[in-house]
Amino acid sequence: TDTAIAAAALADKVGDTLSWIPFLDKLTPKADTVQSIDLSIKLVGELIAHSKIHGLGFNPVDFAASVTENYHNEALMRMVALVCIDGVIPLGADFISKVRNSLEEGGESALEDNPAFAALSGSIPESDKQGFISNTFDAVGDWMDNLISSTGLSPESLFERLGGFIELADDKLDYVAAFLDASTNCYEHTGIQTVARHLIERAAKEI
Question: What are the pLDDT digits (tens) for 101-111?
Fold first, then answer.
């Protein structure tokens, strides 16, 4: 789904650049909306995986508490990557309010058009899928906000870090976000590590 998200975001930027074609921007979704929905659905995917691994109910408030208290090592790395790659870089340090607005204003149509939602919708436990997604994002919002304020995360600070590895123009972070979406798979890698860690720890306790 990351590749599809990146393609849609880049297509939107092409639409912005070629604004002299009057209908092109109507054929591609706005990158902010795409990224906002993508981030919120990835967060729901994290909740579902965490709940199944630990035999818990699908409760956004309980999940947010667990992120605060129990996420360390690769699990914390995964959540920080989510905040940076899907939040701060493409949407800015105020991405939390932008995502909330996108969820409120986009409605079900924005979800139905999103490839990440199509891949995960069958696993979302409630009939009000949009409500569950919004509740999950709201529940973890305080943790994400605290992460940003405590570490000083900003597009500028991340740009400075990324500039040590790749040459960037400071007004092209939206392209960088789309590129990272398409070229990295840190969520899968760290997810496998989390599952393996849990299985090993459980097996050790049963010996």
Answer: 999 887 788 88
d(CA 51, CA 65): 12
Half-sphere exposure of 30 (CA within 13 A, CB side): 10
Q: Report CA 91 to chain centroid distance, whole Å.
A: 11
Distance CA 111, CA 102 (A): 10
Single-letter amino acid, residue 186 = C
3 C-beta neighbours (distance < 10 Å), count: 11
Q: How far apart are the C-alpha atoms of 37 and 99, rounded to whole Å?
A: 7
The model's pTM is: 0.77
- CA distance between the termini of the chain: 39
* Unique residue bearing structure tokens 């299985």: 199
Tokens standing for 180? 């990272």
Task: Tell me the pLDDT tens digit for each residue of 150-187.
Answer: 999 998 888 777 765 555 555 566 666 666 766 677 77
